Amino acid sequence: QVQLVESGGGLVQAGDSLRLSCQASGRTLSNYAEGWFRQAPGKEREFVAAISWSGTSTRYADSVKGRFTISRDNAKNTVYLQMNSLKPEDTAVYYCATDRDKYTSLASPWAEYEYDYWGQGTQVTVSS
């Protein structure tokens, strides 16, 4: 059974940084693209970032481009989301997800149907 466990969330002030981690069990993440999504209170879940299975390609939502960086450590079977210059509007529950198919491109990384396993989420709260 595939399990994704996010960690690293917390309460920070605007301008601070956080690094989220997503560790997997039951699946070798190096064969799959991975994505990060977030859901703020009262809003729909939205795409944040994605990384290809090879790690050579990344995609970001416009709202986080230049501030967030997605990366992967295949030896640790873990994907990271480095978040810098955090803003109050970044407050949300952050979820990682793994692509349903191996070796796919990042043609539509924002599409939730591309992912078959999701973590339970980690809360990020940014105060002004």
Described by strand count, sense and barrel closure, the largest sheet is:
7 strands, mixed
Q: What is the typical, i.e. mean, pLDDT?
A: 95
Individual helix count = 0
Number of strands: 11
Question: Strand-residue fraction?
Answer: over 45%
Q: Distance between termini?
A: 40 Å
* Rg (CA only): 13 Å
Low-confidence stretches: none
Helix/strand-derived category reads mainly beta
Global geometry: globular
Q: SSE order, as H and E?
A: EEEEEEEEEEE
Tell me the helix content.
under 10%
Give structural notes.
- With 128 residues, the protein is mostly beta strands.
- Helices cover 0% and strands 52% of the residues.
- It has no helices and 11 strands.
- Strands 2, 4, 5, 6, 9, 10 and 11 form a 7-stranded mixed β-sheet that branches. Strands 1-3-8-7 form a 4-stranded antiparallel β-sheet, with no helix packed on it.
- β7 and β8 form a beta hairpin.
- The model has no long low-confidence stretch (mean pLDDT 95).
Secondary structure layout:
Layout: E1 3-7, E2 10-13, E3 18-25, E4 32-39, E5 46-51, E6 58-60, E7 68-73, E8 78-83, E9 92-102, E10 115-118, E11 122-127
Parallel strand pairs: 2-11
Antiparallel strand pairs: 1-3, 3-8, 4-5, 4-9, 5-6, 7-8, 9-10, 9-11
